[in-house]
């Protein structure tokens, strides 16, 4: 059994956590996030100046409900920790466009990609994610929700996945693409 759920989550000074009946809300300098939960209990513990979140599964109900709460224990802990880090520091993902003439532009919540197709690829960006294309071949995606930032980055990458022979396409910054050898005569 994993012990991820039993670790305490440290709450920074600039973050406030609100626990309602079946929802945890986190607000910080960058924004607000909330998460509904079930079959677990969340408590705030104080140790001097430091505050911690303690997440425990609830052992009431049938054997099946107890098993469900233990399975989701570590998942809820990680989701709450990601929310706290998101509202205090934020998340960012960087994509690079590799290829001759590959460019990206951002205007009016639309990302315009020129990635080797006969037409420009358009991708609509939601309001809770910010995109920066200061250089034409680098896309920086930032936001407070880790899941949304990574989902937007993955969807943009799928518009032109790196191909295995020359490595052209959209890839994460620092991603290594193993190139295949071409045909031999």
From TrEMBL:
Q: Name one Pfam family in it.
A: Ribosomal_L6
Molecular-function annotations in GO: rRNA binding; structural constituent of ribosome
Is Ribosomal protein given among the entry's keywords?
yes
Family annotation (Gene3D superfamilies): Ribosomal protein L6, alpha-beta domain
Family, per entry: Belongs to the universal ribosomal protein uL6 family.
The record's PANTHER family line, in alphabetical order, gives:
60S/50S RIBOSOMAL PROTEIN L6/L9, LARGE RIBOSOMAL SUBUNIT PROTEIN UL6M
Spell out the protein name for this chain. Ribosomal protein L6
Q: Organism, per UniProt?
A: Reclinomonas americana ATCC 50284
What is the taxonomic lineage of the source species?
Answer: Eukaryota, Discoba, Jakobida, Histionina, Histionidae
Gene encoding the protein: rpl6
């Amino acid at each position: 059994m994993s012990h991820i759920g039993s670790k305490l989550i440290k709450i920074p000074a600039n973050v406030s956590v609100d626990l309602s009946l079946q929802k945890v809300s986190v607000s910080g300098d960058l924004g607000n996030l909330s998460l509904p939960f079930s079959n677990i209990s969340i408590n705030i513990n104080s140790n001097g100046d430091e505050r911690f979140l303690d997440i425990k599964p609830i052992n009431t109900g049938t054997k099946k409900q107890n098993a469900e709460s233990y399975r989701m224990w570590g998942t809820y802990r990680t989701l709450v920790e990601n929310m706290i880090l998101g509202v205090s520091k934020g998340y960012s993902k960087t994509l690079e466009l590799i290829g001759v003439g590959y460019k990206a532009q951002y205007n009016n919540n639309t990302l315009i990609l020129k990635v080797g197709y006969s037409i420009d690829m358009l991708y609509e960006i939601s309001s809770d994610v910010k995109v920066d294309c200061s250089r034409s071949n680098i896309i920086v995606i930032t936001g407070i929700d880790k899941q949304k930032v990574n989902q937007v980055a993955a969807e943009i990458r799928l518009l032109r996945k790196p191909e295995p022979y020359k490595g052209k396409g959209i890839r994460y910054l620092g991603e290594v693409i193993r190139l295949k050898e071409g045909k031999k005569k």
